[in-house]
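WARN no homologs supplied; continuing
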Amino acid sequence: MAVLSVPRSDPAAAPRLSGAGPDASTETGAEAVALIAKALGHPARIHIVRLLLEKQSCIGCDIVDEVGLAQSTVSEHLRILKAAGIITGEVEHPRVCYSLNPDSLLPLAVLLNAVFEKEGRGELTGSLCCPPSGCAPHETPR
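OK structure emitted
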């Protein structure tokens, strides 16, 4: 399992990722990152992930109470997170107990770690739309 961590000696340092995972630059890696990002692309789903991170596991009805949305809406959010592999659900009749699957977030963590590493080395300074130093400015025809 990969873990993002900030070295204690330098709290401002960029997070570091231990472990290896899919390369986000490959087609398969890019698809994995996109699937995860899409599944996390709603505030209610982020709330559910944070809830499961805090509580380790949670019964579906408790998630409904915590999130504060209709049961059917929460069920749809849980379905999307489960389809992406971000959470797992074990049936304990008549309830379902959900838990976080941290390994599923590894492709996104690898991509974000690459961003943090470049930023930590000062390679992401300035505007991304400006040409890199050393390149001649583009002249517009008169």
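Strands lie at 3-5, 16-18, 57-59, 87-92, 95-100.
OK
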